[in-house]
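User: Good morning. I'm curious how fe (iii) ion would be positioned relative to this chain. Could you predict the structure with it bound?
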Amino acid sequence: MHVILLFLVSATLACSQSGSRKTSSHVRIYQSSTKATIQMDRIQKSDDEWRALLSDEVFRIARKKGTERAFTGAYWNHHASGTYVCRCCQTELFPSTTKYDSGSGWPSFYAPVAQSNVENHVDRSLPYETRTEITCARCGAHLGHVFEDGPKPTGLRYCVNSAALAFVPKK
Ligand code: FE
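Assistant: Good morning! Here's the predicted structure, ligand included:
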């Protein structure tokens, strides 16, 4: 009886996961070094594997959808030329050329390096506001949210946690 119950529970979980998550293990990622979009494997690791690779703060924010306090991160007031990449998997995410001062206290960009490298998800975690969460397309790291109050030419504000980013200076 217990075995049957266990089977039913695991079958139900498997169904609900495949229904709500992308099942493809591949993703197309743009690389500025070759100016090409190439198919790559998604990076999937357990919490324990990520914990071994990341600081507690980065794990909390990038893997557990946390948020750093405004005006405290490494990049909200950072103006060097280069590319902001994913802290977890080094996928290129945002060029410094689309960074602007939103006044929010978080690094803000009006566009990613390529639409393919950042994924959008409906986020209903706040009771009073439906937001659009942004994640790294390759490893699923939580980056922040995108809002429709950004500057031209896109009108978008990608509001990103510094802890989810690393910066690669322009050579
Ligand atoms: Fe990533």
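Residues 2-20 form the longest helix (19 residues). The radius of gyration is 18 Å.
Let me know if you'd like a different ligand tried.
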